């Protein structure tokens, strides 16, 4: 049956309308991708980048789930991320295995859903996931798979294996560049405030942070303790076992100090074989306990030398408390340094508190 010319015109109009709607939808999609790419290129910090990929993307693209996996074989990110204010954290992988399982040798964007990859959806979002389809974007830099970005939907048809992946491919390339440049920036930032040998903060960072800690303690009137820790007869270790062994002892002492502290405490290598520690909201008894814990750990530790041998070392600690009415942070440092001098003079391998703190504690007790 041939249709009337009016019916043919109606049909053409309908087809034209649906083409126009598809074109408009595509344009809106392009605008959204465009806006996201611009924001990715402009992020200033790791937390902003992760929030953009996991929280904003999910909202802007009306996704039901978004996940980011990042390869972190050296534990660099797992040390850095907990301190950052992130609404959602990426999953850190210590090996390539999960990425290899997901992308194989092809390493291209995958659209998976019912009948063509339920198992992969579960792999991407967990076994109990309500997601029914997903877009899995490999993040590749300089030929290496550095992570993956997963967008999930409860709608089984949202991601269909036959759909194009042009926008998603572009997004994954830009996300990978943004992640790599952010990691490099973080590395540089940390290198600028970390002592290269021991991994604790350097003097420059300490000088900056200590002033903040000082003014906070003064303003909010809480105690602030300062410890100077100095390895005993370190010159003899260098002379007797060689400089590389001295370096190794320094590295291990730095690690012991770091592990003895709470979040919010600050440890730094102050110079040579001397470390400084700031303990906010810690009283004299608490600070003495920390100093003694570190001293005993060092005393009991067998230090492993580069040639596989062991040696023993000790350290002396000088401890001082921020005094009410102290005019400057330098006064506190100075008192801790004097106390350290006393500890050395009295025979080393001991903790000595500054005279003013001992008399204040005695007066309070009597
Ligand atoms: N291996 C190594 N040695 C260092 C480093 N920085 C400083 N030193 C050495 O540390 C030694 C410090 O010696 P001294 O200041 O005489 O103190 P000490 O031998 O520890 O004696 P006391 O502190 O009085 O117990 C010097 O020999 C420095 O050369 C370093 O980064 N690595």
From TrEMBL:
Q: Which reaction does it catalyse?
A: 2 GTP = 3',3'-c-di-GMP + 2 diphosphate
Query: What Enzyme Commission number(s) apply to this enzyme?
Result: 2.7.7.65
Checking SUPFAM superfamilies in the record gives: GAF domain-like, Nucleotide cyclase
Q: Residues in domain GGDEF?
A: 222-356
Q: What is this protein called?
A: diguanylate cyclase
Species name for this entry? Pelomonas cellulosilytica
């Amino acid at each position: 049956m041939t249709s009337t010319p009016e019916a043919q015109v109606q049909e053409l109009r309908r087809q034209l309308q649906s083409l126009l709607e598809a074109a408009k939808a595509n344009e809106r999609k392009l605008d959204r991708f465009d806006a996201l790419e611009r924001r990715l290129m402009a992020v200033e910090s790791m937390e902003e980048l992760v929030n953009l990929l996991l929280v904003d993307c999910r909202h802007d693209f009306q996704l039901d789930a978004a996940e980011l996996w990042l390869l972190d074989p050296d534990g660099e990110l797992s040390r850095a991320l907990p301190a950052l204010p992130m609404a959602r954290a990426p999953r850190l992988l210590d090996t390539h295995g999960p990425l290899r399982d997901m992308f194989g040798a092809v390493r291209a964007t995958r659209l998976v859903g019912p009948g063509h990859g339920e198992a992969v959806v579960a792999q991407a979002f967990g076994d109990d996931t309500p997601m029914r389809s997903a877009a899995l974007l490999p993040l590749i830099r300089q030929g290496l798979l550095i992570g993956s970005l997963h967008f999930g939907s409860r709608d089984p048809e949202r991601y269909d294996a036959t759909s194009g992946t042009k926008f998603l491919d572009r997004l994954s390339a830009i996300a990978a560049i943004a992640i790599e440049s952010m990691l490099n920036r973080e590395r540089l930032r940390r290198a600028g405030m970390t002592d290269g040998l021991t991994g604790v903060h350097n003097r420059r960072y300490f000088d900056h942070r200590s002033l903040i800690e000082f003014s906070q303690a003064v303003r909010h009137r809480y105690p602030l303790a300062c410890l100077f820790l100095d390895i005993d007869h370190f010159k003899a270790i260098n002379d007797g076992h060689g400089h590389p062994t001295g370096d190794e002892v320094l590295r291990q002492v730095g690690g012991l100090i770091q592990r003895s502290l709470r979040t919010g405490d600050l440890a730094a290598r102050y110079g040579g074989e001397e470390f400084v520690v700031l303990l906010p909201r810690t009283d004299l008894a608490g600070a003495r306990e920390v100093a003694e814990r570190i001293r005993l750990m060092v005393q009991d530790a067998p230090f492993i030398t580069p040639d596989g041998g062991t040696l023993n070392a000790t350290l002396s600690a000088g401890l001082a408390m921020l005094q009410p009415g102290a005019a400057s942070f330098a006064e506190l440092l100075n008192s801790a340094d004097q106390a350290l001098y006393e500890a050395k003079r009295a025979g080393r391998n001991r903790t000595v508190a500054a005279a003013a703190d001992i008399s204040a504690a005695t007066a309070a007790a009597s």
